[in-house]
Every structure is written in structure tokens, then in C-alpha cells.
């Protein structure tokens, strides 16, 4: 598959609408694969020179990207994560922590969360959305604690240990094959 090609996804809510896929090839198209949704059809624009096998791969890639994006938008539209983080910040960090965003992502399947201290952004794997609330709360507390301590030092675990179900939640996540993050 030509990794030089760029994928341009259609805007707006899509997956639920798509009933059929139509491929339009163009000799002028060289560097991008693009798509748009017209009524219930996903129209995929491909370079003329692309093989049938490559075409199938790109359509699959496009479909997966659209599904991920729709899922991300649906999960984050409720604002649940932000509310939970606010509550947990009050309860376990005296309400002192500040972050710029906390959201579900779909590209972190083995890691359950991540925190970038430089811009105070927190990402939670969408896998957590289907797990028990007390496990999700642990992951939020874990990532919030990284805003204070970036590593997994004793000081970090002391902070996270304030959450009473930390050890149980870690066991639950290990059993699910998810890595500490
Ligand atoms: Zn961590």
C-alpha cells in the first residue's frame, strides 16, 4: 500500500448514513485518497493508477477511520469524562489540578491512558468506555496524578493510592492485557 498517499476524510457524522460505496478514479489525482458522503453513498476518490487490491485496502482503511472518528465523537459528546475528572480532582487532589482537555481516543488499544504534561492534555482509551466505572475512575486518577508526578515513582503511587480501588483496578486492567501508562 503506498504510504505516501494521504487520506482526506469527509466531514460530519458519516458511518451511520453509508449504505453504499462508489469509487471514482482520476488520472489527475496523485497524492491523496479522499472521500465524501452524498446522500447514503460514500464516494471515494482514488488515483487512476491504483490496483484493485490497493483500492480495497484504502476503502477498508477509510471505513475504519470513519468508524473510529464517529465513535470518538459520540463518546466525547456526553462530557462524562470531564465531569468525572472534576469530581475525582475534588476528592483526591483537593481540586488543585488543572488540565486543558480530557477525552476518549481510539488509537490507544493496549495503553489505557496517557497524559502530556507540556500541554496538560489527557487521553483515555475508548476501551475504558465499556469497563466498570470504578476502573475508569482509577485510570482518570492515574492520569491526573501524572500532572503532578510524570513517572511511576513511589511518590506517584502514594498519590494514586488515595483512590481506594487502585490495586483492584490495576489487577482488572492487567487481566485485560492493558499496559500501565
Ligand atoms: Zn502512568
Structural descriptors:
binds zinc ion; four-stranded mixed beta sheet; Zincin-like; 2 domains; 39% helix; 181 residues
Predict the CATH topology of the largest domain: Zincin-like
Succession of helices and strands: EEEEHHEEEHHH
State the low-pLDDT regions, or none: none
Tell me the domain tally. Answer: 2
Give the helix level as a range of percent.
25-40%
Overall SS class: alpha/beta
Strand content: 15-25%
For the termini, the CA-CA separation is 31 Å
Report the C-alpha radius of gyration, rounded: 21 Å
Total count of strands: 7
* CATH top level label of the largest domain: Alpha Beta
Which ligands are bound? zinc ion
Helix run count? 5
CATH superfamily of the largest domain: Metalloproteases ("zincins"), catalytic domain
Amino acid at each position: 500500500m503506498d504510504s505516501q498517499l494521504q487520506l482526506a476524510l469527509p466531514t460530519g457524522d458519516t458511518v451511520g448514513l453509508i449504505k453504499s460505496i462508489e469509487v471514482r478514479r482520476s488520472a489527475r489525482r496523485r497524492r491523496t485518497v479522499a472521500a465524501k458522503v452524498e446522500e447514503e453513498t460514500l464516494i471515494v476518490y482514488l488515483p487512476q493508477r491504483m490496483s484493485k487490491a490497493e483500492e480495497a485496502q484504502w476503502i477498508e482503511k477509510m471505513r475504519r477511520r470513519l468508524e473510529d472518528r464517529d465513535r470518538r465523537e459520540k463518546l466525547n459528546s456526553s462530557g462524562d469524562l470531564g465531569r468525572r475528572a472534576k469530581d475525582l480532582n475534588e476528592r483526591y487532589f483537593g481540586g488543585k489540578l488543572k488540565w486543558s482537555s480530557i477525552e476518549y481516543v481510539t488509537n490507544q488499544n493496549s495503553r489505557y491512558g496517557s497524559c502530556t504534561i507540556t500541554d496538560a492534555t489527557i487521553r483515555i482509551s475508548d476501551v475504558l468506555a465499556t469497563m466498570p466505572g470504578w476502573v475508569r475512575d482509577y485510570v482518570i486518577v492515574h492520569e491526573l496524578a501524572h500532572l503532578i508526578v510524570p513517572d511511576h515513582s513511589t511518590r506517584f503511587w502514594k498519590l494514586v493510592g488515595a483512590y481506594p480501588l487502585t490495586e483492584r483496578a490495576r489487577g482488572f486492567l492487567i487481566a485485560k492485557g492493558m499496559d500501565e501508562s
